[in-house]
Design brief:
Order of helices and strands: HHHHHHH
Number of strands: 0
Structural class: mainly alpha
Largest sheet: none
Mean pLDDT: 84
CATH class: Mainly Alpha
Helix content: 55-70%
Strand content: under 5%
Distance between the termini: 51 Å
CATH architecture: Orthogonal Bundle
Number of helices: 7
Length: 137
């Protein structure tokens, strides 16, 4: 009986596709992410994102985090920062203009977010290094 139950559970989860995964369904997530990318310059309230996903604010935030691994606020901050880096690399706009273009309050706000992203990436890189004290060959 236990083996049969385990086999049925494994069969169910083996068939589980991307839309059946926990969290916000993929098509709704895509709509939300597209909206965020199209409106980085503007304020993006969670209520608007929840309306797009056809959920309440708290349900949306919880399901968004399950699917993306970050809160809507953190995701928007990350997208703005990455977009700012892309525009800086292009070199066509001044940094103050880039800050406004991606939705930061000013150049100083953008700089703080860039430093924050750099620190997060460094922490991730450090965490992936081997734990031993001796260097690898």
């Amino acid at each position: 009986m236990g083996t049969l139950l385990a086999a049925n559970i494994l069969r169910y989860y083996a068939r589980m596709d991307e839309d059946a995964a926990p969290g916000l369904p993929q098509p709704l997530l895509r709509e939300v992410l597209d909206y965020i990318d199209a409106n980085l310059r503007e304020s993006i309230p969670r209520e608007v994102l929840a309306r797009i996903s056809r959920l309440g604010v708290h349900s949306f935030a919880r399901q968004f985090k399950i699917r993306t691994g970050m809160t809507p606020r953190d995701y928007i901050r990350r997208r703005r920062t990455v977009r700012a880096l892309e525009l800086i690399a292009e070199g066509k706009l001044k940094k103050a203009a880039i800050a406004g273009e991606v939705g930061f309050y000013d150049q100083s706000h953008m700089k703080r977010q860039l430093l924050r992203l750099q620190a997060e990436e460094a922490a991730i890189a450090r965490a992936s290094l081997p734990a031993s004290g001796s260097p690898s060959p």
